[in-house]
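FORM 7B: Structural annotation worksheet

SECTION A. Query
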Amino acid sequence: MSPEPTASTTDTTKRPARWVWPLLAAPYIGLLFPGMYNRATPALLGFPFFYWYQLAWVVVTSALLYVVYLQFRSAE
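SECTION B. Predicted structure
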């Protein structure tokens, strides 16, 4: 049987900030409604809006995940 955690071990545990959770939901919400971005204009470097919008979310999602990772890593 494992020992129960003591007050000293639970008090020193840091939690990540609450603002990181909405960051994880942002890409999901941004791509949830294709009707919102299913159009050709404005084009960027010849790519219709539909394609470059989704590709932009790949880059933004990577950056957001890195920020969330840093918050969880600093909470250890």
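SECTION C. Observations
The chain has a mean pLDDT of 85. The helical segments are 7-11, 20-30, 34-37, 49-74.

SECTION D. Sign-off
Analyst initials: ____
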